[in-house]
Amino acid sequence: MTISKATERYETWLARHLTLLDGDLRFKHEQMRLAVFPFLRATYYRWAQIWAGTVGEAARAPSVLAVGDLHVENFGTWRDIEGRLIWGINDFDETWTMPYTNDLIRLATSGLLAEMTCGEKAGVEAILRGYRDGLEAAGRAFVLAENHPVLREMAVARLHEPERYWEKLHALPEATGEPPAGAMKAIARMMPEKGLHWKVSHRVAGLGSLGRQRFVAVADWRGGSLAREAKALAPSACVWASRGGGTAPIRYQEIIDKAVRCPDPFVRLQKRWIVRRLAPDCSRIELASLPENRDEIKLLHAMGFETANVHLGSVKPRVVLEDLKKRPRGWLLAAAHKMRKAVQADFEEYGKG
Asked: Is the entire prediction scored with pTM above 0.90?
């Protein structure tokens, strides 16, 4: 199946589960043609369809409740229930049960396609070493105020001018038409008090979820701004890739509840809407927002470790560690090279369409 046909069939399936916005979907298709890394981020459905057949033996591994669409820009910060700044994976739209190697191979492939400067072998080894360290430690949350000064400096570099963040949210045009009642109810449940008045806007963000309804409510509350976002969810693309259709439960809440982390108390699945708090320190971190002199080896090590934090919610450490011991040296880099080649080929083919 070609990438164009896969895209068409996946979006037809997706439209059975939620409302797709034609304008946002066209914009997504445009972004998919710009560069191979955005293409990877936008096409998890294709990855789910081809990855196991492409990497072969590397896909035969113990299963975990996995992130699925893991990549180097699927990390961010939030405040836990104690108000501490936490760093970690912040998007679980494609969560599904699959071999643990899926997340590691996709994370490593994304590092190659994002052209991180630390060197391919060193970078992939850092991911794998971090993952193994996380398993051996039985997991540990990334509380930035105490134990991770280098990561903290990288993560907070984008927080020096929070005014710009709020200016952008306040500048969003008010949504036309009546937003879905389910989204508004979900947002209202996550507000700090009842009776607040807020402006509702349609927000265009991300790549994998472009085309879905995404509403942000911005309000002034006790001397400052606050925002909540509701994004429409569907079952993981793994359901489409493995079954060719049908439906399944959305497992977003399950994976964040089970992971060895300090969760964001303002992220909750409300029926088919995922609601989160938006703020300068509660958002995804793009590579472009990190300082130029960042320590990429430590960053990739932390990403591997955090991947273990999430997997440990559904598997015993020894199960994965024993499997890792059996794997040949260089297996992760070899699998990432295979997937980079496959993604590059799809990107070039899609660009001709």
From this structure: yes
